[in-house]
Design a protein that fits this description.
Shape: globular
Structural class: alpha+beta
Largest sheet: 7 strands, antiparallel
Helix content: 10-25%
Number of helices: 5
Distance between the termini: 40 Å
Radius of gyration: 19 Å
Strand order of the largest sheet: 3-2-6-9-10-5-4
Amino acid sequence: MAENFINIDRKIISECEKRYRIKLINSLAGIRQISLIGTKSKEGQENLAIFNSLIHLGSDPALFGLITRPSSVDRHTLTNILEVGSYTVNFMHKSFAKQAHQTSARYPKELSEFNAVNLTPEYRENGNVPFVMEAEIKIQMKLESVLDIEINNTIMVIGSIEQIFLPAIRLSEDGLVKVENLLLSGGLDAYYEPHFLQQFEYAKPNT
C-alpha cells in the first residue's frame, strides 16, 4: 500500500499564508541548538535574544556563524554586535524554555530582555558583554566578519570563540561536549531536548 505523501511545490510554498510558510520551512530544517545571544549597546544597554541559527564554520580558527533576519526593522542584537564587536552565546537547560522563548518578543531597545524574562546578566574575565548566569554553557565571541546574503537580505555574522565556560561534567576526555537536557528548537515556537545515542570512532575507509 502506497504511503499518503503530500506534494508541496515551490508555487504552493510561495502562496502559503505568511505565518504558515514561516513555520513550515523553519521546522522543515530540523531541530537546532537554541542560543541566547547576549549583547550590550555602546550606551551600555543590555540585550538578550533567542536564535536557532548558530552554525559551526570551523575549529582552526574556531568560528561560528549566526544568521540574522532582514534588517528592514531595527535589530538590536545585530546593531549591538556591530557597534561593540563582541557578544556571548549561551546554551540553556530545557527548564528555561519559556523564558528563552519570551526573549523573541519585540521589546523596546531601552528595556533589557534580561529583566523582562527574569534572567541574570553576568560578566566574566573583564568581558564587556553579558553572559546569562543561568546558562549551562557560555561562549564569548569576537566579531570577525559580516556577510550579506542578497537572495533574502539576511546577514551572517561570523565570530571567533574567545572563551568557553562549561561544567566539567559536560566535557569528555576526547573533547566531546555533552549537550543532554539543553534546549533545542524545531521552529519558531516548538522546543525539544537532545538525548545521546552513540559515539563512533573516526571513520576510515573499509579495508
